[in-house]
Structure formats: C-alpha cells, structure tokens
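W.,

You were right to be curious about this one. When I first looked at the sequence I had no strong expectations either way, so I just let the prediction run and decided to look at it fresh. Below is the sequence, 288 residues in total, followed by the output.
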Amino acid sequence: MKRVYLGLLTIILITFLSACDQNEDTDTETEEQVIPVETIHVTEGDLAIEKTLYGRIAPSSTTPVLIQTPGEIDKLEVENGDQVEEDELIAKLKTPAGIQEIKAPEAGEIMKLEVKEGDITSDTEPLAMIVDMDELIINFSVTSNVRALFEKEGTYQTMIDGDEYEIEITSIHSLPDDTGLYPIEATVENKDNNLLPGMIAMLSLPEKKVENTLLLPTEAIFEDSDGAYVYIVKDNLAEKRKINIIESQSDKTAFEGEVNEGDEVIINGQLTVSDGSKVDVIEEENQS
C-alpha cells in the first residue's frame, strides 16, 4: 500500500512540474513576441485640399460642307479622317447645270461623310463636316463655389486618357445653364492627335489650404466609436494616441492631438498591434 501511495505521489509531482515548465514556456513565448512594423515620422506643413472635376472634350469648331444644287456624286476626293486645307477639292457633282466642284470651307478633318460615288445628294443636309482637331475644347459644369476658383486665361494641368496636358481657361460663364451649374470652357492643344471628341478630362483644382498643420499618410489613421487614433512607437512599444482630423485627402491627412512633430507613427503592421505591444521597427519611410 505504501508503494502505491509513493507511486501516485511521484506521478502527481511529475505532472505538476511538467505543467510549471509549460507555463514558463508559454510566458516566455508571450514575453518574447515582437511585432514587426514600418513607421513614418510626423511632419508639419501645408495640406492643399483639391476638388476633382470632369469635363468632356469637343471640337473647337465644326463646319458643315454644303452644296448649292442637288446632284449625283461623280467623284469623291476625300474620305473620313482625311485632313484638308481651306478651298481644297472634296468632291465633284453631276448637276443639270454641269459639273459642280465642292471645296472645303475651312481647314480641318473630314467627318460624317456618308455618301459614295454614284449617290444622289441633297442640298438640305451637309455633305460632310469639317472638324478642327488641332485645338480642342473641354467643357466643365461647376457650382458657383467652384466657379470662383477659376481664373480666365489661367492654365491648369489636366489628365486625359492617362496623360497630362496643359489647358487654358477661355470662358467662365456668369449665368447657370438648365442644370443650375456654370459652364467653364478651356482649350487644349492636340499636338500628337491623340485626343478625340468625347474623351473625359480630369482636373484637380486646389480648393483650400490648411497651413502649418501636422501631417500623416491617411493610411496610418484608424477610426472607431471613440474617434480617430494612431499608434506611435516609444521605447519599442506601441502606444495608442487619440487625434482629431482637420482635413483629409486620399493620400495625406491634417490633424491635431496627442502626437507631436517628429513622433514615429506605425504605418504598416498597425492592424496586428494593440496599446502596449512590443514592436520592432523594420523600416522607416520618409514622407515627401
């Protein structure tokens, strides 16, 4: 009986010691868990708040090619897409009065030529249209507040089909259109003939500026029911700091709060940290 008692005591003691060892291993693993993060330093500067506008491209001029007397198309000298000069021969018509020559009233590109040789033409519809594609118009429709941001003859950088172009404002209407918006017209040079009517131009216009403010990438900031916050790094520990957002753009945010210029803020890895987490800064980014 004594041997059985000693055996049970030995088993209990071994189990207890094993449990203690496991707890020590778990505590050691918990203590040694370090989360890798990337950080960026808080800077002070100005944040420009931009308004994004969209405009549609149109020809600067469209001139109809008219005929005086109906007749049969005897010969076509051009086709759609051809460039013509003023007074260049476009077509010859057979009419009761003889052969009539149709010439270009303006220089430009031939469009909407929908007849072929042998067709009978009418004098009530244009034979074709001549479009000036060297300089195009961009039409914007804006609110009264945005209208005040434009300057006539001012130049702005605009994105069209992935490329940047410089446009010049040529007209700022004082009266709204039927939609209640104010038309703004601009011109853009079509040097490489890459632009076409109907394309969309995107213009980012500075709307206002927040001066002398703390700045961070917007992706570093989180919000919950208690408000906005970031994680800063102090002595290799993550500290949660509350902030107030002043203005925010897709890339940068102006803010104030429990953060100072030069503080090291976590920008990547903050989803896996909490207040007091031990962290290892593996990369510091420079804010441009």
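Here's what jumped out at me. The mean pLDDT is 88. And, maybe more interesting for your project: Residues 2-32 form the longest helix (31 residues).

Coffee later to discuss?

I.
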